[in-house]
Amino acid sequence: MYDNEMKLEFLSKSSNEAFARITVAAFVSVLDPTIEELADIKTAVSEAVTNCIIHGYEDAEGIVKIKARIIKNTVEIEISDTGKGIENVELARKPLYTTKANLERSGMGFTIMESFMDEVDIDSVLGLGTKITMRKKIKKHLVDIEKEEIASLGGVC
Amino acid sequence: MNTNYIKKDKLLTVEITEEIDHHIVEKIRRKVDDEITRYMPRKAIFDFSRVSFMDSAGIGMIIGRYKMMKLIGGEMEIININPNVKRILEMSGISKIITMKEKRAS
Asked: Which of A24, A80, A122, B82 has the most CB atoms lying inside 10 A of its own CB?
């Protein structure tokens, strides 16, 4: 069982990129992430959603789906489209590789997702779509660990 | 709107006032290019003091403007970068070719 779960569906409009990353960040905030951890998640979500819009649907209208789950102190985020799919996943993962250089795309999307999240799985079928699954463990703050230790002492004081 | 421009002594300061993602880049790219080609500055300074977020779309945008400044024989600089934006810039290698200055302590 998950500790929490949410689903989000929206049109593949670029104005929804900010909406998507802010919504996921709000969902994750119960884990009390640091500003840096939250920035990591927002950036990874932004990259994945942008990919759905410009690569999956190639600016045509489609639906982008996000499913986010919290399992203990790990967040799992699935971002999927039913667009054209990735021809060569290995190549797509490579830093600086892009099929849209004409749009000034840097080819850093997957590299950023991989370095900001703990795990990134790419599941893509040509003509059917792509699903990205990312996981990140939110580190417990020292204060919380101390609180737990005090609690585990069972009211000695 | 999304950008402000200050022109002085052939220095063009471009202040970006929003989070930089694919959506915003599509909007501001042409506007910035327009300002550069009309003013032909010797240096373009991108002020990021109001940029709290940037993803890889920003990298493409910066490299594109850097190439343009090179073409007209000018320089480029990015100032007031926050730590999260700085990490993206460093990852992309941009920090090796463009002068970057971190956020002033205020």
From this structure: A24
Q: How many whole angstroms separate alpha carbon A57 and alpha carbon A52?
A: 6
Question: Where does the pLDDT of residue B105 fall: very low under 50, low under 70, confident under 90, or very high at 90 and above?
Answer: low
Distances (CA, A) of B10 to B2, B4, B7, B99: 22, 16, 7, 18
A7-51 per-position pLDDT tens digit: 999 999 999 999 999 999 999 999 999 999 999 999 999 999 999
Chain A residues within an 8 Å CB radius of B84: 35-36, 39, 43
CB contact under 8 A, B63 and A15: no
User: In CATH, what number does B3-15+29-102 get?
Assistant: 3.30.750.24
For residue A74, the surrounding DSSP H or E stretch is strand A74-81
Q: What are the start-end ranges of the E strands in A4-62?
A: 4-11
Q: Looking up tokens 């940029």, which residue turns up?
A: B51
Residue B76 scores a pLDDT above 90:
yes
CB contact under 8 A, A46 and B21: yes
What is chain B's alpha carbon radius of gyration, rounded to the nearest angstrom?
13
State the smallest CA–CA distance between residue A13 and chain B in angstroms. Answer: 9
Sheet containing strand B43-47, strands side by side: B3-8, B11-16, B43-47, B75-81, B99-102
Give how far the C-alpha of residue B24 lies from the chain's centroid of Cα atoms, to the nearest Å. Answer: 13
CATH code assigned to A4-152? 3.30.565.10
Task: Name the residues of A annotated as catalytic.
Answer: 47, 51, 105
| Closest chain B residue to the Cα of A13, Cα to Cα | B23
**CB-CB neighbors (< 8 A) of B19 in chain A:** 18
